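for the recovery benchmark. tokens below, seq after
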């Protein structure tokens, strides 16, 4: 499904950008959340208000995801006792980062289910409620007030033409008008679609710049998990989804 070109109906200009720095207890890792100006977006004939939304300034990086995946927040005794074992990902096959790069790079290949479970873990860990964005919210904060796709996609996004056939560290391209990095390109980002089904938004490093824009969407196919030897396929990892990641949002005030 391709979302119709959205029209920003109203937008409250940010007087001063508000940022929350969320520390993950028991670690030195932080998540930066940016307060998005209130407004609304019109898409597929509906007007959707967006209010009180905080958005992670980058896509979720391995630095954060590793804590959950490898239970780095638990003591050795807790690990041995199997604490939260069933609510954490199974070990990935091979190198989860595909050799693209790890610290500071966007994590790769989470299923939609894994992204949801990560949000639940981070919520419990920090005491703040995190979730995935809706498709309308994603397009609203990705556009950051722009009614048109970027004239120069490569200037703000890692795409096929400039990515060297892999992801790049988060936050290296200029931020958009809301202070968010990599909303287009690098990894496509999971969202809850307008039809309430999972969808990835914004394109990735594998997409040519002509196909990357605020309306770029993709739905999971069997190709995303083709080489997974398990039956049934892993509920945590997309074995062939090295172009998929996610960004988190929150409605919690500081």
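predicted aa per position
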């Amino acid at each position: 499904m391709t979302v119709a070109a959205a029209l920003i109906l109203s937008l409250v200009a940010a007087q001063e950008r508000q940022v929350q720095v969320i520390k993950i207890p028991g670690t030195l890792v932080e998540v930066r959340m940016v307060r998005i100006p209130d407004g609304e977006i019109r898409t597929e004939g509906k007007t959707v208000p967006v209010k009180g939304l905080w958005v992670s300034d980058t896509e979720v990086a391995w630095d954060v995801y590793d804590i959950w995946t490898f239970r780095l927040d638990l003591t050795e005794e807790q690990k041995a006792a199997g604490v939260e074992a069933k609510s954490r990902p199974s070990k990935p096959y091979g190198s989860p980062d595909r050799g693209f790069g790890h610290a500071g790079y966007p994590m790769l290949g989470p299923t939609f289910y894994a992204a949801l479970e990560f949000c639940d873990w981070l919520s419990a860990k920090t005491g703040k409620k995190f979730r995935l964005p809706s498709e309308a919210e994603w397009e609203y904060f990705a556009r950051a007030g722009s009614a048109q796709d970027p004239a120069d996609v490569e200037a703000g996004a890692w795409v096929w033409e400039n990515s060297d056939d892999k992801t790049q560290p988060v936050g290296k391209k200029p931020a958009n008008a809301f202070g968010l990095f990599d909303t287009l390109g690098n990894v496509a980002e999971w969202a809850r679609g307008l039809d309430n089904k999972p969808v990835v938004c914004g394109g990735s490093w594998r997409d040519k710049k002509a196909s990357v824009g605020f309306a770029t969407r993709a739905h999971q196919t069997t190709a995303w998990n083709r080489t997974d030897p398990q039956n049934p396929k892993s509920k945590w990892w997309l074995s062939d989804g090295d172009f998929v990641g996610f960004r988190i949002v929150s409605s919690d005030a500081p």
